[in-house]
Design brief:
By secondary structure, the chain is of the alpha/beta class. It is built from 13 helices and twelve strands. Helix 7 (about 150-160) links the parallel strand 3 (about 140-145) and strand 4. Helix 5 (about 90-105) packs parallel to helix 13 and helix 8 (about 185-200) packs parallel to helix 9 (about 220-235). The radius of gyration is 26 Å and the shape is elongated.
């Protein structure tokens, strides 16, 4: 058995190739576990030799990257970027997505680099600059959790960056162009929420959403189509019975205190409200109760995502909502990214949809008479 190499001497792939009696290209493919070119037995043999000799791929990564750049090829970094809002750790919605993808990536020994979708400089608007670590080609791909209208400029920059270009991009929850999209089935969720309210007897609903282009996004379009289909099946014209409150991207939480009284005065026939998400529903509850409304006696309320269940005095979740399988979406997105690294076919033209589930609680009831 060969003696372990001195820690002061760098072990190279050429040394592993000589030790195994294999071609350098075969060793390179085996270390990448690229089974298109090498057998499982060769992969095992090369990895055993690498461990025996004390090979550390990180020691030669910079040299491989320089060599690859001269030949206009890519180097596998075993590193992935994840685009998330700056304070994602404080929001259960983003934390659950992150936990799902992080679990899968770290199990495969990938490093995860967090990149904020907001600028680091005041006024902290949507980021447009491509991070230096990605321009240098140090990320194999990226996962994205961002509203499409806020990510468009950065997406264009990534695709034009020499160090990133056509590397795999997977979008989670929010549909992005030029990406593989892993999404929740918003259409079914919208349909189930509206069908529930209609079955209770509600006929005029107010829907709050936040988007500069509500019909252009997956959530805005599919969820709205689900609402409309359920209404049509009950013989109602959505244009007459579904009342929309559309506000610019990033502004909804701030406008709720002033907009709710105005919207309910404009549509006094409304007996139920559907919020964009649970977090917005939580703010609505505070405002509506401050206005003297009883929930659900005077108004029914439905959230979306099941991240803020609003426990009552007994600790029982109170908010009726549409649950999204956020951890599973994160896991699936990470697996899609890893599959593309192995050059497996992952179609980008059709999104991967995860089912949504209506969770009925105490915030909905038959309308007041």
């Amino acid at each position: 058995m060969a003696q372990p190499t001195s820690p002061h001497k760098q072990v190279t792939m050429k040394m592993i190739a000589a030790h195994c009696g294999l071609h350098l290209a075969t060793v390179s493919a085996a270390l990448r576990r690229d089974r298109r070119f090498v057998s499982e037995a060769t992969v095992a043999r090369v990895h055993a030799a690498a461990e025996e000799l004390g090979y550390d791929p990180a020691e030669t990564q910079a040299a491989r990257r320089l060599q690859a750049r001269s030949f206009n090829t890519k180097v596998a970094n075993q590193a992935v970027a994840v685009f998330l809002p700056h304070a994602f750790h404080a929001a259960p919605f983003f934390w659950r997505l992150f936990y799902g993808l992080y679990t899968v990536l770290t199990e495969q020994d990938y490093a995860v680099t967090l990149v904020s979708t907001f600028s680091a400089h005041p006024p902290h608007e949507d980021r447009t600059d491509v991070p230096a670590i990605m321009r240098r080609g140090e990320m194999d791909g990226a996962l994205v959790v961002a509203q499409p209208e806020g990510f468009a400029a950065l997406l264009a920059g990534l695709r034009n960056a020499a160090g990133f270009g056509d590397r795999p991009l997977v979008a989670l929850v929010y549909e992005q162009p030029q990406c593989v999209n892993v999404l929740a089935d918003e259409y079914r969720g919208g349909y189930a929420a509206m069908a529930h309210l209609l079955a209770l007897g509600h006929r005029h609903m107010l829907y709050y959403l936040e988007s500069s282009q509500p019909i252009a996004t997956h959530a805005g379009s599919c969820r709205l189509q689900g609402f409309q289909q359920a209404m049509r099946e009950h013989g109602l014209d959505p244009a007459q019975h579904l009342h929309l409150a559309v506000y610019p991207y990033g502004a909804l939480r701030e406008v709720i205190p002033d907009s709710l009284p105005a919207m309910l005065q404009m549509y006094p026939q409304v007996t139920a409200i559907i919020a964009l998400n649970d977090y917005i529903a939580w703010h609505m509850v505070e405002r509506l109760r401050g206005m003297g409304y009883r929930l659900p006696e005077d108004l029914s309320l439905i959230g979306f995502d099941d991240t803020h269940p609003m426990p009552d005095a007994q600790g029982t979740p109170w908010l009726t909502t549409v649950s999204l399988p956020l951890e599973e979406i994160g896991q699936a997105g990470a697996r899609c990214l890893l599959a593309q690294f192995q050059e497996n076919d992952v179609p980008a033209d059709q999104p991967i949809l995860f089912p949504t589930t209506l969770v009925v609680r105490q915030s909905t009831a038959p309308p007041r008479r």
